[in-house]
Amino acid sequence: MPVTITGAGRDVTAALSGEVDHHHARAIMDELDRLADTALPRRLTLDLSGVSFMDSSGIAVLLRAYRRAQELDGAVRVVHVPDQAWRVLRAAGLERLMTFE
Amino acid sequence: MRQRPENEAALTFLSRSSNEGFARTAAACFAAQLDPTLDEINDIKTAVSEAVTNCIVHAYPDALGKILLRLRIYGRDTVEILVKDSGVGIPDVDKAMEPLFTTGNEERSGMGFTIMESFMDRVKVRSAPGKGTAVTMTKRLARRIGGGA
Lengths: 101, 149
Known about the structure:
The structure holds two protein chains of two kinds. Chain A is an alpha/beta fold. Chain A is built from three helices and five strands, in the order E-E-H-E-H-E-H-E. In chain A, helix 1 packs parallel to helix 2 (56-71). Chain A starts with a strand and ends with a strand. Chain B is an alpha+beta fold. The chains are: A alpha/beta, B alpha+beta. Chain A binds chain B through residues 19, 21-23, 25-26, 29, 53, 55-57, 59-60, 63-64, 83-84, 87-88, 91-92, and chain B through 17-18, 20-21, 24, 39, 42-43, 45-46, 49-50, 53, 56-57, 99, 106-109, 111-112, 114-115, 118-119.
């Protein structure tokens, strides 16, 4: 499973794992969409510690999660970002949009 | 850079998204002979992933086509990567290279060329509508004290 979901109520953590590229992005987006539709998270934490590779498809995945959270009046926090993924996300300036820890 | 390459490898594969991981791993394996740092290997993998994904999404939108990945080493520290397709081509290369510009679906962010340019030293794009696109990227790796040739 590319996405593992934990948490209670509307405080939810989604842990992404494996390679976040164009080949896997659709499945990850679908999982996160389902999460947004069912859990209506107020506070969504995306844990990237299990991500072994990310390209610009990861930017699209995070932006979509961010937009869905905004629709729900919620917030997105991204934690445990590996160096390689961080360089990609920073190239897109995502640190100006969401919280990275 | 028109000197003779020290080494060269080429692969041709179909524009299936399952080949994205294969292509970037192959490029990383070839570049490994220059004893790169982990960051340099990751830069190469990321740039190749972007170039190959562009072919899969944009060059061959409705059919499978062939993608050429040619890897070259110049001197003791420079890797040149060519990703070439025979797909639809890009009508306006300058526009396509602008950050956030995309004609792809929502899985694309429009940041592919920006990532290639920030992770490699030089990115050159040649394209002709109806004929295809060739992206040539070069990166000079840091020479490490005691590093092998």
